[in-house]
Amino acid sequence: MKQLLEGYERFREGYWREHKELYSTLAREGQSPPAMVIACSDSRVAPEAIFDCAPGDIFVVRNVAALVPPYAPDDKYHGTSAALEFAVTSLNVRTILVLGHSRCGGVRTLMKGPSEGKHDFISSWVEIAKEARQRVCDSPVPGDFDAQCQACEHEAIRVSLANLLTFPWITERVKDGRLALAGWHFSVETGLLEEVA
After folding, report:
1. Pairing relationship of beta strands 180-186 and 193-195 according to DSSP bridges
2. What is the pLDDT of residues 105-147, one digit of tens each?
3. If we measure between CA atoms, which residue out of 33, 31, 36 comes closest to residue 167?
4. What does pTM read for this prediction?
């Protein structure tokens, strides 16, 4: 906690002071970010840092493995779906970017399959991308487990992009040109971004 509070003090004395007018404008006028980024919760993959964004530039939702579940309206809790709905129908973002990354622990968990230890949420969450795992297993990737995980990271992005199109208000906007979808993979090791089609 001490490290976080020290960081806050640096933020207040430095960045916030330098950008006080921007924060004042955002508070007064609200947000209207042009893009939404769905990213992994991994501490090494901060979208605001990767894309060098200022406050108000991107609407971000982060979860394990940057996954998008399929459209499933019911009375359950849907954090990622709620963020999508808000970004698309209230903020009118023009781009949704799914940002996967190398050495993703969520994808590694998916590739390992069900574990002997009990997890309350992780195993069922990463099952959203079970089709990605199946694609990798059906088309054996040359190399070791790390190579298979890297292939699955790309496939998981593709699954999330496909799942985005199960949301009717996303599909409608994509069809009429108001919204674009994109998938990118960030390498923690090299800092390079690679488009995933």
Report:
1. antiparallel
2. 999 999 988 766 667 788 889 999 999 999 998 887 677 899 9
3. 36
4. 0.92
Distance, in Å, from the CA atom of 7 to the CA atom of 106, rounded to the nearest integer, reads: 28
| 101 is known to lie in a ligand binding site | yes
Whole-angstrom distance, CA of residue 74 vs CA of residue 148 = 34
* Phi, psi at 192, each rounded to 5°: -90, 145
Distance separating alpha carbons of residues 25 and 22, to the nearest angstrom: 5
Instruction: Give pLDDT tens digits for 172-197.
Output: 999 999 999 999 999 999 999 999 98
Residue 194: CB atoms within 10 A of its CB come to: 14
**Mean per-residue pLDDT for 25-37?**
96
All structural domains of the chain, each given as residue ranges with its CATH number in brackets, are 1-30 (no CATH), 31-195 (3.40.1050.10)
Contacts of 126 (CB under 8 A, 6+ apart): 64, 65, 67, 106, 107, 109, 110
Q: Are strands 95-101 and 35-40 parallel, antiparallel or unpaired?
A: parallel
pLDDT at position 165 over 70: yes
**How much is the pLDDT for 120?**
78
Of 125, 34, 129, which is closest to residue 78 (Cα–Cα)?
A: 125
- How many of the other CB atoms lie within 10 Å of CB of 79? 11
pLDDT of residue 96: 98
- Residue 40 among known ligand-binding residues: yes
Residue in 47, 192, 162, 187 with CA at minimum distance from that of residue 104: 187
Structure tokens at 135: 């694609």
